[in-house]
Amino acid sequence: MTTEKVNLLDFDRKGLRAFFAEELGEKAFRADQIMKWIYHFGCDDFDKMTNINKKLREQLKERCEIRAPYVSEAQHSTDGTIKWAMRVGDQDVETVYIPEDDRATLCVSSQVGCALECKFCSTAQQGFNRNLRVSEIIGQVWRAAREIGLEKETGRRPITNVVMMGMGEPLLNMKNLIPALEIMLDDLGFGLSKRRVTVSTSGVVSGLDQMTGQIDVALAISLHAPNDKLRSEIMPINDRWDIQDFLASVRRYIASSNANRGKVTVEYVLLDHVNDGTEHAHELAQLMKDTPCKINLIPFNPYPGSPYKKPSNSRIDRFQKTLMQYDHTVTIRKTRGDDIDAACGQLVGDVIDRTKRTKMKQVAENAIPVKTL
């Protein structure tokens, strides 16, 4: 019987030190050395860790591994964006590298599919399979950093920012999200500033309250509607935690946070003639008056089969100008990678749906009678 090896990417520093002490009888500094090899040098070969004694290297080779998701497909956009399909088990999640003049952002997935059923999101239409492990979350960053490092001759900028805005709802995977964030921030890990790591949530209040006081990173909230009626129509999670519950939790988090500098980023996807009217802008401005924020407008990115459309430029501009009348800081997100379906709301991966959502959708579309027992 073959014993499954322990993947060291599943441990943050505290967990790795505990494993080395309890399972290998080694001191903390040895765990720190290994962590530095993994994240500073992108090393997954114990034989190359030359400051580790041979006996320990042999132990590690026998009992452990350093296994990140591998790239099963890469697509390159004309604007420099790269979308990787990363293999996790027998499925794919998607990870997106977005280079800009002063930064390079990596958009990371937290789940295989998504359990939330936001009506405008392509990922949500794929159904849900499972949460990603720590190694599969941080492994996306590790693999992407290695891929970029292999392309140094192209002049690609190293990763400076990470956003948890890929497939899935991060706060429904708290057990694995927190250690992955710790590794991103750790000086022995990727050493990113807490202001350069962003978690986005659709409104999982229980998870956000759990984060409060436990870890400090930048927060973005997926709001997308200025009132409960409309939000519940396009984001069913609103039936569990309504807007006021959500914003109260947001205020508690930013009050405890240094990373957010007292403000939260509000993400608002503009859907043509759904939530993009002047009346919606006035309502949104009033809604956010007690929550310090920056509002980021995201023109809808179409995907096959979607009933929604991107608003005209005039409607987008009118919405922004209406919000600015209330002295809100308002930006319009520049669409990146839409030619390879890597833009916001377009990520799909390869998901084995456990919710049967995709089958139910196919049945409805084809008008096939559903047999009941």
UniProtKB/TrEMBL annotation:
It comes from the Bacteria. One of its GO terms (biological process) is tRNA methylation. [4Fe-4S] cluster binds at C114, C118, C121. Disulfide bonds join C107-C344. It is found in: Cytoplasm. The keyword Repeat does not apply. Its cofactor is [4Fe-4S] cluster. InterPro entries: Aldolase_TIM, Methyltransferase_A, RlmN_N, RNA_MTrfase_RlmN, rRNA_lsu_MTrfase_RlmN/Cfr, rSAM, rSAM_sf. GO terms for molecular function: 4 iron, 4 sulfur cluster binding; metal ion binding; rRNA (adenine(2503)-C2-)-methyltransferase activity; rRNA binding; tRNA (adenine(37)-C2)-methyltransferase activity; tRNA binding. Gene3D superfamilies: 1.10.150.530, Aldolase class I (3.20.20.70). The keyword Iron-sulfur applies. Keywords: 4Fe-4S, Cytoplasm, Disulfide bond, Iron, Iron-sulfur, Metal-binding, Methyltransferase, rRNA processing, S-adenosyl-L-methionine, Transferase, tRNA processing. Its EC number is 2.1.1.192. Its main location: cytoplasm. HAMAP family: RNA_methyltr_RlmN. Belongs to the radical SAM superfamily. RlmN family. This is Dual-specificity RNA methyltransferase RlmN.
